[in-house]
Description:
Layout: H1 8-13, H2 34-43, H3 46-50, H4 53-67, E1 71-73, H5 80-85, E2 89-92, E3 96-99, H6 105-109, H7 116-119, H8 121-133, E4 139-145, H9 147-156, H10 164-172, H11 174-198, E5 202-207, H12 215-236, E6 242-246, H13 253-260, E7 264-266, H14 273-279, E8 287-292, H15 294-299, H16 301-314, E9 320-324, H17 334-346
Amino acid sequence: MTLSVDKPLLRALHGERATRPPVWLMRQAGRYLPEYRRLRARAGSFLQLCYSPDFAVDVTLQPIRRFGFDAAILFSDILVVPHALGSDVRFVEGEGPRLTPLAGEADLGRLSSERLHEHLAPVYATLRGVARELPDEVALIGFAGAPWTLACYMVDGGGSKEFAATRTMARAAPELFARLIDLLTAAVTDYLVAQVEAGAEALQLFDSWANVLPADERRRWCIEPIGRIVRAVRKNVPDVPLIGFPRGIGPAYAEFASATGVDGLGLDTSIDPLWAAEALPPSKVPCLQGNLDPLALVAGGTSMLQSADRILEAWAGRPFVFNLGHGVLPQTEPENVALLVEHLKSRTK
Length: 349
């Protein structure tokens, strides 16, 4: 890939300092935007929205048109991969995702990657459509869920605070669970490479539930599979930067960065930016990403800007991408997002 001087996100992820940090926000397209809510009502269901390229292109571009972010992230969901493998995935209004729990050998045997790309063809069409319409200076980010987080949803059958069924299977039936992780690792790798072929210029891996793993399990089920994905993706598309987001693992971020070799490291809200500046220097992590509290964005005003400035000051002098420590919350006022982006774009050092 030939990097464009007009795409600050890509330059930051490749370890280049900029006059200001590029900015995008996790869940920057979503329920807090009235234009999204109108389109969502027309789509019929959340999965139909994800699998309808015309709608998904529009949703992906909505925050770019409104706020002028430095990157667009594909509008989709991490659970399209389990869905493509044969899991029964549905979204219940007000409750979130529901899957038929994977409980044993027979359930695993019903999964197959044979139709992966056929099933995900609408997602690739969305990426091609967005790539045609993005302003020249705006980068396009593809993404996927990491194997551990996808397995959590598949085994527990939905969201959970503890994911007890998944953690129990990982310990009580490690060979069976390893086969599930291997299947997901291969599928996610193939999916990410196909996203690049469809137009994605950077990739993010969301390990949203890495925090429920104890230290003795984290390397096997979180870090090692992501490292395998990073190496395999780089072998196929060597110039495309990868961002890892293993939410909630605290000081283990340093081990994660070293073992996986990601280009960018997304930090959650719990991480002190000053700690990150010391523990995660550019020699260990080319680019940091994060980590404003989403509730600061809800509050808005001076408090939000002061919190943003604390991050800017802690990471001044090194490549980083400004983002949140998790996704934009539905109750966020769009005016607060506009104020934040305007503030960040005014800060040049």
